[in-house]
Design a protein that fits this description.
By secondary structure, the chain is of the alpha+beta class. The chain has 2 domains: about 1-115; about 125-245, Distorted Sandwich (Glucose Permease (Domain IIA)). Helix content is about 45%, strand content about 20%. The chain has 2 helices and 10 strands; from the N terminus they run αββββββββββα. Strands 1, 2, 3, 4, 5, 6, 7, 8, 9 and 10 form a 10-stranded antiparallel beta sheet that branches. A hairpin with a 7-residue loop joins strand 9 (about 225-230) and strand 10 (about 235-240). It is rod-shaped, with a radius of gyration of 59 Å.
Length: about 250
């Protein structure tokens, strides 16, 4: 081999070596670039996760808040409806109480304006105007037969003008007796009582208990002798059954 040929072969070997080194370098660069790019992409994707997580957390918080507000609103609605029902119930109870009070007031007014029987659970005894040996003249009242101790009531509101033994001043034949003056200038008398529970000058109401029945005075047994008079005194009596009937009470 000539020197020139040897030199050319040597130069080609060097060129091939340099080309291999360049290629290797270029491959490394390409590989390194791809890695850097991939790393960059991966970094970019990872960097997006916190933002996505924040959006999800915010959405959950908003949903939770909305649900809580709905529950609060529902409770407030239920409370308002219950308050409305309670108010309606109270109003209804108030109306019932007012109606009951009105009825009681009306009943009280009727009792005050009306007349009642002087005793309850009685049997009709000797009538007004009957002649007999029991009386100096004809019978001056209506006998109502009841047991001793039966409550005796004022037939109408008024003022007590006589009360006590000796017929309250009308004589011993009446025993313990009471006379009451009423607002229509009539008088009611109650005789043969076992007890007197009112005194002269006392105001009484319709149906008020004024004494207890008995058999004091000129009496053949327990009963109430009842009179309606035009004056407070004996001798002015009128037929009591018809009088009470005219005033809405039947004996």
């Amino acid at each position: 081999m000539s020197k020139r040929t040897a030199f050319r072969n040597s130069s080609k070997a060097v060129l091939r070596t340099r080309a291999a080194v360049v290629a290797a370098g270029l491959g490394a660069s390409v590989a390194l670039g791809s890695g850097v790019a991939l790393a960059a992409d991966t970094t970019a994707t990872v960097s997006e996760f916190p933002a996505f997580a924040s959006v999800v957390a915010l959405d959950d918080a908003l949903n939770t808040q909305a649900a809580t507000q709905l529950k609060v609103a529902e409770k407030e609605k239920q409370a308002a409806e219950q308050a409305k029902r309670d108010a309606a119930k109270r109003a209804d109870e108030a109306r019932k109480q007012a109606e009951e009070a009105r009825k009681q007031a009306e009943a009280s007014r009727k009792r005050a304006d009306g007349w009642v029987a002087p005793v309850a659970g009685y049997q009709i005894g000797q009538p007004f105007g009957k002649a007999g040996s029991m009386w100096a003249h004809k019978h001056s009242g209506q006998d109502l037969v009841v047991g001793t101790g039966t409550a005796v009531m004022s037939v109408h509101g008024g003022t007590v003008v006589k009360a006590g033994p000796n017929g309250g001043g009308d004589g011993p034949a009446y025993g313990n007796a009471i006379v009451i003056k009423h607002d229509n200038n009539t008088y009611s008398q109650y005789a043969h009582l076992s007890q007197v529970k009112v005194s002269v000058g006392q105001t009484v109401t319709t149906g008020q208990v004024i004494g207890l029945s008995g058999s004091t005075g000129n009496s053949s047994g327990p009963h109430l002798h009842f009179e309606i008079r035009t004056t407070p005194n004996y001798g002015s009596g009128i037929e009591p059954v018809g009088f009470l009937k005219a005033h809405g009470e039947n004996l």
